[in-house]
Amino acid sequence: MLGGLLALLGLVMGFRSLSPIAAEAAASEEPPLGPLPWRAIVTLTIAPIVFAMTVRSLGLALATALCVGIVCFASPRMTLRMALGVIVGLTIICVGVFSFGLKLTLPLLPTFMVG
Amino acid sequence: MLGNLALGFATATTPEHLIFCFVGALLGTLIGILPGVGPTATIAMLLPITFTLPPTASLIMLAGIYYGAQYGGSTTAILINLPGEASSAVTAIDGYQMARQGRAGPALAIAAIGSFAAGTIATLLVAAFAPVLTLVAIEFGPAEYFSLITVGLVCSIALAHGSVLRALAMVVLGLLLSVIGTDVYSGLPRLNFGLIELSTGINVIAVAVGIFGVAEILRNLGGGDERSGEINKIGKLMPTKHDLKQSTAPILRGTAIGSVLGILPGGGALLSSFASYALEKRLSRNPERFGHGAIEAVAGPESANNAGAQTSFIPMLTLGIPSNPVMALMLGAMLIQGIAPGPSVITTRPELFWGLIASMWIGNLMLLVLNLPLVGLWIRLLKVPYEALFPAIIIFSAIGTYAINGSAFDLYQISLFGVLGYMLYRLRCEPAPLLLGFVLGPLLEENLRRAMMMSRGNPAIFFDRPISLGLLLVAVALLVVSVLPMMVRRRKEIFVED
Question: With contact defined as beta carbons under 8 Å apart, do A61 and A91 qualify?
Answer without folding.
Answer: yes
